[in-house]
Write a structure and sequence with these properties.
Order of helices and strands: HHHEHHHHHEEHHH
Shape: globular
Radius of gyration: 22 Å
Distance between the termini: 85 Å
């Protein structure tokens, strides 16, 4: 009996060490991302494998890394307005948006994703597609790690350089060249809004199509205001003035 308990403790200890090692494993890679733009992601590699199997050419995606100064400020604001306007308010997981999504479902609406921009970076860098609870749990953990180890602006840099923006096209520079025949630094506000508008379905939507046109109008309206960096105070009720008040 004692020997069985000893073996059980050893198994549990090894499992705990294994889980701990897996949790620490992404840390050096994330720290490296603070100074080096990743040349490839798990999403890109999956595309390479899929295109190789199908015999499609070119196998490798269009992808050019650029610095923050080579990205239009309008594109940074447009992407936040489209994908995660509460980016500066959350810690990688936006509990407010999750609650809003659940409330919409309870009212009979469709349950839409509430993934933050940081979660999308985590998925692009390390994970696979899917909606399982295991994958979403790992994604949430990696998003929190990203927020702890990198600045918000660096996370946004990573997103803009790694996001899928069209058929076999990744990153803002390749997207600007493909869709508008110009650099990402030269994008106008309207062009930036149109690129941000197609992020939910970049292989199906064109930035010049009707869906992008409708979505871009909403994004442009949001772009008039800076992305919030502090929670807005709740509205105060005005006290009704009674007769005799001074």
């Amino acid at each position: 009996m004692a020997a069985r308990r000893s073996r059980f403790r050893r198994v549990i200890t090894r499992m705990a060490f294994g889980v701990g090692a897996l949790m620490v494993l992404p840390v050096p890679f994330i720290l490296l991302c603070a100074v080096v733009q990743p040349p490839v992601t798990s999403v890109m590699l999956r595309h390479v494998v899929a295109r190789t199997i199908k015999g499609e050419r070119p196998i490798w995606p269009a992808h050019t890394t650029v610095s923050r100064g080579q990205l239009s400020p309008a594109l940074r604001r447009a992407v936040l307005a489209s994908e995660d306007d509460r980016f500066y308010l959350h810690f990688g997981i936006d509990v407010v948006e999750i609650q809003n999504a659940l409330d919409r479902q309870r009212r009979g609406g469709k349950l839409r994703g509430a993934s933050t921009l940081t979660q999308q970076v985590a998925k692009n860098l390390f994970l696979w597609n899917g909606r399982s609870f295991v994958r979403k749990g790992i994604e949430a953990y990696l998003a929190v790690l990203l927020e702890l180890l990198l600045t918000k602006e660096r996370i946004l840099d990573l997103y803009l350089n790694l996001a899928e923006w069209g058929p076999n096209t990744f990153g803002a520079e390749a997207a600007a060249r493909l869709h508008f025949r110009k650099s990402a630094a030269s994008l106008t506000r309207d062009e930036a809004a149109r690129l941000a508008a197609i992020l939910p379905a970049p292989r199906r939507w064109s930035p010049k199509g009707s869906i992008a046109t409708r979505r871009a109008a909403t994004i442009l309206a949001r772009m008039q205001y800076a992305a919030p960096k502090t929670e807005a105070p709740p509205p105060t009720k005005k006290r009704r003035r009674r007769a005799g008040d001074n």
